[in-house]
Fold this protein.
Amino acid sequence: MKRFWSIRMRASKRIQNSKFKIQNSGEIHISGAEGLYEDSDIQRIIRSYIDRALSHPKGKPSVIRLAVEEVSQKPVEISTLDVSTVYSGTPSSGRKISARLLHAVGVSEEAISNAFEIIQKGRMRGAAILTSERGRRLELDTARGVRVSRLGISKKGSRALSMKLSRHGINTDTVKEALILASKVSHCEGTVAELCISDDPNYTTGYVASRVFGYVRIPNFKRAGSKIGGRVFFVKEGINIDNMNRYLEKVPVLVESAGSCRGIRSADEILDSSHQ
Ligand code: WAQ
Ligand code: MG
């Protein structure tokens, strides 16, 4: 049997300011990456992660942490969600479009409004988990959120996905990594949908995702320069949160094939053709 390794990188900068230190353990996050790899890839991936840590636009790190850990369970093999983009020119129109899609899969107004409030505050390292009807918060640590981990893409999957994304000019690490994460999250039985806005002030495209309508990108989801950002997972009302956490954090999931990738579509088209 093939052995898999979870390789994770996290680069940060130590800071002197003592007030900041108390709040943030004295470090500012610069970049991070992770994936599931076979033995023969370890050295190459570590080199590429180090390069990535040292060349991030946010600045030079003073600490780079690497974890290389054997995964004992065989990864669950999945395909990526279908990708499309809805044209939107402003954050308020993006919010309406996302609300419409989320509503269509059973996320209530209340849950949607709670989710935007959480994202507006920003500053979480992980995602919030909200029940889709009542909008109740379930994650154990509400300051940090839950971190999805042990996820990756095989070489074959990566080639197939890159080819499809390239046709629409969106074959970037950012899109690929977000799509892999959304595909792992939506694969979980208790998940209804996800809402995501990057915390990077210069990255203004966000997305909503679900098994029903796929991964729907929304440009101009926030103002350029804005520091807000975050992720919210909407889940069925009665789920077992311990099982959900275990799946998100620990169960290895590997993307082996790519779903369809389309260009710009309207929310109506997406909902009409979705797997209801
Ligand atoms: N698990 C759970 N939550 C996470 C994780 C993770 N592994 N990584 C980040 N988050 C949360 C955290 O609250 C961040 O503030 C927030 O998500 C945004 O993270 O197709 O880059 O890494 O063009 O800034 C969307 C791409 C990119 C859209 C999203 O997110 C597209 C992105 P970021
Ligand atoms: Mg980011």
Remarks:
- The mean pLDDT is 95.
- Residues 173-187 form the longest helix (15 residues).
